[in-house]
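Quick log. Single chain, no ligands specified.
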Amino acid sequence: MTRMIIVRRVADLRAHVSGWRGRGESVGLVPTMGALHDGHLSLVRRAKDDNVRAVATIFVNPTQFGPNEDLSAYPRDEAGDAAKLESVGCDLLFAPDVSEMYPAGFATSVSVAGITDHLDGIARPGHFGGVATIVAKLLLQALPDRAYFGEKDYQQLQVIKRLARDLDMPVEICGVPTVREADGLALSSRNRYLSAAERQIAGLLPRALAEAAQLLADGRAAAPLLTDIEGRLIAAGFGSVDYIALCDGMSLEPLAAARPGSRIFAAARIGRTRLIDNWPVL
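-> predicted structure:
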């Protein structure tokens, strides 16, 4: 197996990608913040399936953390992450520092309106501005043929699709199905914060969403059903629920009843861990 290249400067990233594309080799990009798990690796595997080359990025982006979110506590393990990436055939890891991505005098931001007015756009003010800005930079720095994002962060996926489309970026944005534990819990870097007892409780979230999705598909009204789910989560041991909502799968506008393409979304806190998930309804 060819050894994975690690670069930290945009110029070096561009040089390698330019060389590959000059030889007619397609490139898939997988942006991450590190602390990699099998969900991330599934994105890299998909990138390798679809393209000749796969590039992953690791950058803990400070601009997408809110004032009450601890940037310094976000898990970091570059050496371990690099080994995982290499094991699934990643060709290059781009791991810049903050000064490379936000040099002195940086004064530009990217925002996506409408689709960010709901769900985490309300629960985490400013978050998607940071996401849109850093993803726009990474797409322009790497100029991949395709970029891959997990459906667990479904709102983020839709924001990035809109971003790329509205700015005429020559890249295909590909969503990849959520990877789950045996009990249905979506894989997340933040799951490592769960205690053993909290981990047992956490599995209720996907089960409740799956059950609700079936009832909504059968014609149940959304409001009482969503209220019931919130009560079940709190009774089971979740500390708080940021939202449970039925939304259109494209615009993410709230819905009173299910229709084709709708999804149910949830964000809830257990201990110091915030879990998000979503489930297709129809």
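The radius of gyration is 19 Å.
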